[in-house]
Amino acid sequence: MKELISIVIPCYNSESTISDVVGETQKHLKEKLSEYNYEFILINDCSKDNTIGVLSSLCEKDERITAIDFAKNFGQHAALLAGFREAQGDYVVCLDDDGQMPIESICEMIEALKGDIDVVQGRYQKTKQSLFRRLGSKVNALMAEMLINKPKELEMNSFWGAKKYVIKEIAKYEGPYPYIAGLILRTTSKIANIDVKHRARTRGNSGYTLFGLIKLWMNGFTAFSVIPLRIATYSGMICAILGFIMGIVEIIRKIMNPAMTMGYASTITIILFIGGMIMMMLGIIGEYVGRTYISINRAPQYVVKRKWDKRDGI
Q1: How many angstroms separate the CA atoms of 198 and 126, rounded?
Q2: By C-alpha distance, which of 98, 115, 116, 109 is closest to 6?
Q3: Which positions ≥6 away from 64 have C-beta within 8 Å?
Q4: CA triple 284-136-75, angle to 5 deg
Q5: pLDDT digits (tens, 9 = 90+) for 103-119
Q6: What is the pTM of this model?
């Protein structure tokens, strides 16, 4: 019996690109990986265009394509989890919906997964992204190294593949703030990179905004690390020590020069600095408390409005 490859693609405003992505991927699988069966799991993250109409049409034409329609926008990582729970493949490959992924590298990815490697991540030699996206990716990688112990030499992005057991383990996560990179790193250490080419975007614009990137960082680093709380603690200790030292210095200066006038500007500066640090620390603590409260109340990761698949039909 042939092994099965599941292709999982989160979709957002990809009415003009998703058909081409699916078509090219099908062609590659038939030509280069004909010894495998395949299926597609396409998740519409409440797009504003007619993406769901295109996905439903693809499902009607091919029974190997499953489409899931979210009731509201829950984000790319929630969409991936929904896809993982539907995927039945021995290997699962994740793609973007914009046509920038190197489809021709799927064969190499599957070949690597047949060995001792559990997860294979694409590593771009040069990305065809805006300066904003490249900067966001750099910051995200740096924070991942600091907060969730990502190996420095490992690159992680949205083009990757994994064995079935890894995907099933990731899919067990029920928290309302999923972060796929954190789930991968806590599941296995057998992760490798393969060098791939990044294509230029031919149509449409990236769906990521600055707010979306910040939200993604907060999801990952408050759900999988307490290091931000430790940073807040250490920052408070440093400020207290600096304040104590500055106080001693001012006392010594006053003793040596009784006529010296104490400066109001320096006092206000210190008050603003300490006050800002306190507010920042309270904000970090509040973020953890708020997310804990939402998790206790079992906020859903996503809500499925409709589903098209080979088992249930339309």
Answers
A1: 7
A2: 109
A3: 37, 38, 39, 40, 310
A4: 70
A5: 999 999 999 999 999 99
A6: 0.76
